[in-house]
Specification:
single chain; alpha+beta; three-stranded antiparallel beta sheet
């Protein structure tokens, strides 16, 4: 979810143990929402990781997804490992040989 509003702060403020007071009142927010191990999970993601997620959403190859990260390509492996470890990546396919 990408929003010009602080949707993650609003969600956090309205959890049962909270009183509805926002920790911050400015956006934008990019929030990854996914189901893992039977539970809905959400977390804010930085613009670089957001670019990577958007590339995968469009069906990008690993090479294309890496290119989408621009100047932050050194974070590709760590971001990819984090997404896989959280159960965000559901699968992949191998490209046919280019022989």
């Amino acid at each position: 979810v990408e929003s010009p509003h602080p949707v993650a702060a609003i969600l956090e403020a309205n959890r049962p143990e909270r009183d509805g007071t926002l920790a911050r009142d400015a956006g934008p927010d990019r929030v990854l929402v996914h189901r893992a191990r039977g539970a809905v999970r959400e977390r804010c993601v930085e613009p670089v990781e957001w670019a990577l997620l958007r590339a995968f959403e469009r069906g990008a190859t690993l090479e294309q997804a890496l290119a989408s990260m621009g100047e932050a390509q050194e974070r590709f492996a760590a971001s990819l490992a984090a997404l896989a470890g959280q159960g965000v990546l559901a699968g992949f396919t191998l490209a046919p040989d280019r022989a």
